[in-house]
Amino acid sequence: MPTFLTTLIDTFAPPFLLLSPLTSYTDQILSIHRSKSSAGFSLDIPLIMLSASILKVFYFFGAWYSKSLLAQACLMIGVQAVLLKVALDNRGSTVGAGGGMELLGGAAGGEKGGGGMGGIGGGGGGLGVKRPWGFWRWRGQKLYWQSLAYFTATLFLLHTLTPLPSLPSYISLLGYTGLAIEAFLPVPQILKNQEARSCKGFRLSVLVNWLAGDAMKMSYFFFSEDKITWAFRLCGMFQMGCDCYLGVQYWMFGDGEVGRGRGVEMAEKGIGGR
User: Fold this and answer.
1) At 115, phi and psi to the nearest 5?
2) Mean pLDDT of 175-204
3) For residue range 215-264, what is the model confidence (pLDDT) as tens digits?
4) Residue 100 CB-density burial (10 A; 0-12 exposed, 13-18 middle, 19+ buried)
5) What are the CA-CA distances from residue 247 to residues 98, 99, 121 (Å)?
6) Which of 76, 119, 125, 126 has its CA 20 to 30 A from that of 168?
7) Across residues 33-47, what is the average pLDDT?
8) Do residues 22 and 79 make contact, with C-beta atoms less than 8 angstroms apart?
9) Which residues contact 37 (CB under 8 A, 6 or more apart)?
10) What is each CA distance from 135 to 41, 89, 147, 150, 160, in whole angstroms?
């Protein structure tokens, strides 16, 4: 690759990636705050991004990857914490029970079609997989923050009180786990959109920023002179594929009524029919 392109990527990609948490999620946060409703937004997005970013921070202390990516992970934790708070504050009055078993993908409160805080797969039956003890569908907010605090404290204790951080296999496990979780980010929204046949509640600005971020990340991961591990590259490629399919869904289903996508409207009008 020409030297000037490498220099260009190393100059502009790090600040772009660093600010991507703000550019990707600020509009979503403001939208939920203004509408006083988080309908159609999956609570699993902050769960995924917080878990992945926390793991990436601990992964740094062993892999010593690019400091720009570490700074991005730290900023992402702050942004996702705000997003989670705003989404929880603006949930519907009916949410999943705090105990028992709940379908992984069932909408909170049993609403269908993404009318509540859709889980993985949105409303209805979702994936048909049950959430143990109603995980991440609790009534009160306290359990959400406690679970994140316990997760972080456990990793901190493992890093400071055990010899695990000296093991390359443990460091690699942290990296691949965190990045695989992050790569899974678009999947809850994809499944929710597919089942509802609508992208209502999912901001187009988020999708555009995800796709722009994917393009920048791939350039940075493969052509930068900074230290980028293959864990970042492999998981980035998977996530880019998922984000592209989200774009296809937005084209197919649009932002119309739940259960009525753009493809359905085209069929009714005889457009593209056989």
Assistant:
1) -75, -20
2) 85
3) 888 888 888 877 788 888 888 899 899 999 999 998 898 875 654 444 44
4) exposed
5) 34, 36, 17
6) 76
7) 89
8) yes
9) 90, 92
10) 17, 18, 10, 14, 28
Percent with pLDDT over 90 in the chain: 39
- Amino acid identity of residue 266, one-letter, is M
| Contact call for residues 198 and 261 (beta carbons, < 8 A) | yes
Residues in the chain: 274
Instruction: Produce one character per residue of 5-40: b if its CB has 16 or more CB atoms within 10 Å, e if not.
Output: eeeebbeebbebbbebbebbbbbbbebbeeeebbbb
| CA neighbor of 239 nearest in space, from 157, 195, 182, 199 | 182
The whole-angstrom distance between residue 202's C-alpha and the CA centroid of its chain comes to 12
Tell how far CA 147 is from the center of its chain: 18
Summarised one tens digit per residue, pLDDT across range 75-111 is 999 999 999 999 999 987 544 444 333 334 433 333 3
Question: Which of 61-75, 146-160, 201-215 is the most confident on average?
Answer: 146-160
Are the CB atoms for 20 and 209 separated by under 8 Å?
Answer: yes
